Amino acid sequence: TLSYQLLDTRSQLLALGHGARRLHVSAAYRAKAKVSMSRFEPTSFVNYERLQSNIDIVRKRLNRPLTLSEKIVYGHLDDPHNQEIDRGRTYLRLRPDRVAMQDATAQMAMLQFISSGLPKVAVPSTIHCDHLIEAQTGGVQDLARAKEVNQEVYKFLSSAGAKYGVGFWKPGSGIIHQIILENYAYPGVMLIGTDSHTPNGGGLGSICIGVGGADAVDVMAGIAWELKCPKVIGVKLTGTLSGWTSPKDVILKVAGILTVKGGTGAIVEYHGPGVDSISCTASQVGMATICNMGAEIGATTSVFPYNHRMRTYLEKTGRGQIAALADEYSDSLVPDEGCEYDELIELNLDQLKPHINGPFTPDLAHPVSEVGAIAEKNGWPLEVKVGLIGSCTNSSYEDMGRAASVAKQALDKGLTCKAQFTVTPGSEQIRATIERDGYSKILGDVGGVVLANACGPCIGQWDRQDVKKGEKNTIVTSFNRNFTARNDANPATHAFVTSPEIVTALAIAGTLNFNPETDYLTAANGEKFKLDPPNGDELPAKDFDPGQDTYQHPPPDGSSVKVDVSPTSNRLQLLEPFGKWCGGDLEDMKVLIKVKGKCTTDHISAAGPWLKFRGHLDNISNNMLIGAVNSENDAINKIKNYLTGEYGQVPDVARHYKANSVSWVVVGDDNYGEGSSREHAALEPRHLGGKAIIVKSFARIHETNLKKQGVLPLTFSNPSDYDKIRPDDTISIRGLKTFAPGKPLTALVKHSDGSEEALELNHTFNETQIEWFQAGSALNRMKELQ
What we know:
This protein has 26 helices and 30 strands.
């Protein structure tokens, strides 16, 4: 793009003669500033000028140094002159640069965009086919089968992309977050993605935020996007990573410190002298790993400051022009000297040891040196049945190289993996490059099966055959999440997350009770040997091999493209608008279920085999809350229907209540809705007649998703009031006629013994969000305003 613009300027100069020299110089400068956001969008440009201008306006208004997070977020304000800014309190109206959607969430996002009636997306947007490919036998066969099984969905997404101006990455292209890193993320960009691990892009100095599909529709429609002004948690890194310690250990340690809800409402900003150690020893992609798994502590996103490693990565991935421009604006891409954080964590990398987190929650952190003893004490199975490397968290060229360096040491001593071993490349580019450079052969020779360039077992797309459901067993992965039954639908599987090199070592040893820093393996000839610390090139010496071309450009004019949704399809269903608010209080609602303990979006709307219904709201609603524990009987998917007196499955009872015009609420515990960004966990309760979710506290994305769909997310003013709710209560919510920001609502709880009590309920609605509720959903409100 740049060369064409300069050529055009020279042509003007020739036409106008020597008197136009001043015009030539200024036009050349303008041309220099016009650098395309990606090679796929030659007419959409990086806008550092606007970023810098907004930062200057806000810094002058606030009269203080700014964190990097603030610079990029406030740099995208819709109205920097007048926006009220108070970290943790006010809502910001923002203008993100682009949108990315994975195929499981893109279905509902595009169905909502279609029902908005708009002709074309207002910002660059992409769809990535990565979630619907099930791991069974190996990459080639699994991909071919997925294309056949999901043909209807892929055709819908492809045609919808073409019609509405959205780029389409075909199945086999790779995992959304790796594709974003390779093509779309760059320092200072603001990207929203319909996947909770979108923050992966923070490793390239971007503010990348996971959202539900309705939020994506706002941005694609050209509407200012709302985000509660994030607090900023600073993580100051000192020292240097070395030996078996990897970037993954930084976030495993931070997760242990902050827990699964410690980052809620905040951006985690890494800074300090240790950042250069990470960028030197573990590359920009290592920083992406750290940001990716920030989703596990509930953070809005995570980010690293611009540095020379990011520049090198941009150059290696064909974006040298962006790197040169970022160098010019580098002051806007690092924190100001003397900026202040809401919370500060200091981490000395010299003292950091390899970690492994789990089972059943990603914040249960253990040093690898201690996990064997801890497992024995707790009765966790020591034998490692399967080791799985890859996923969006750890599937870079360097990750694969470090794992291969461990595998080669074992092969040289005549050993292969005692456990089963799978390898998931992050993208077609990574797959082709590790194949060319011999890593795939090493990982295959040690016992690895290379799976498709997709999410696979990380999200439950795994047809696991080696253990029966209910059989207690241990797996180790380089993934990001390890909730109960997430990977293989077996609630007895103890899943642990760690770095790819530790996974490889444990798969070779076949046991959790192995510390590669100190313990010995026995070679085929009987001699004892220790594994050397892993090593791997950060980037390929011969540049990346792009592999097969898997991108579909939208046509310049897609208005004639047809997007068909069959009325008899069981995979796709056009959306009907939800009903408006009744205009009064919500009276005498049943408690559908009082949930006990952890309730993630996996519990509310399971993935795995249910992914195939992500475009069909009625069908996917048959998985609503089937993983949640009922406080009444400690059972899963077994609740009492108070109209019939019989016990049934959660979705069936909800449908029965709806058919009988009985509204209902869900009562829940802390950090309700943590995990994935899937808005189906909000759409399903709305579709089946739910009016409110009342809990101790919410995870950020889920709370927003509920608001978008016209459901009331409410929290107990006194968290111990959770204990006052009984399964057979009826609940009325009072105060809705005077519903206002900051003003609590009241739950009038009627017990079956005739007694009543009033409980105060808090909410975080602002004026705009109250309008969503009154209209029945954010999409309804958007149509009212058109």
